[in-house]
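Quick start: read one record
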Amino acid sequence: MSISNKIEMPRAVFWDWDGTIADSYGFLNDAHNFTLEKLGFAPFKDGEYKAYFGKPRDTLYPAIYKDKCEEAKDVFGGYVLENSHKIQVLDKSLEALEFFYNNNIEMGIVSNKKAELIASELKHLGWNKYFKVIIGAGDAAADKPSSAPLLLALEQANINDNRQNIWYIGDTENDLACARDAGCKAVFLAGHDDSVRLIAEYKPLVTFERYDELKEILVAI
């Protein structure tokens, strides 16, 4: 857990979804394996999906499905919608959402997953009330690491004031780059193989590895 400098309560908070709130690596691995086998490909070997996790759809689908990209998107999307009840969330992430919600801080989701799939998972969790805006894959001119999805989320939330008081919370380099290029403050869920490099390069406002650490920071503001 670290804080780069003195912080104040954010004006609004936007979140990545998969890997940041949703503990979805295994679920997405299963979804891609289902899709791969459905389309006649071999499923991922153990750990192989890690290289693709969180990548923009425009690069992920061609890399995995070659010339069957569009068909793969339909099969994958259908699997996720039918199995959204299987989604799990990171431990104590709900406590962080509750903290911001109870302090009247607006929240939204900016993800490289399709918005309709996120909406289905939120419905299952009963979490719709927390998020004013959901921006997913293909909704903006480009997906993360571009700043375009976060800027679109700010526009849809009618937030036109100082972006330096807007937080974007994520777990990958895509998220850190998106926040930086949008002029917002990055809050980084670390603990990955390249975390040390990413923290040194992007200098997030707050770094944490567990949500109880983030909660400790929040209550001290």
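The mean pLDDT is 94.
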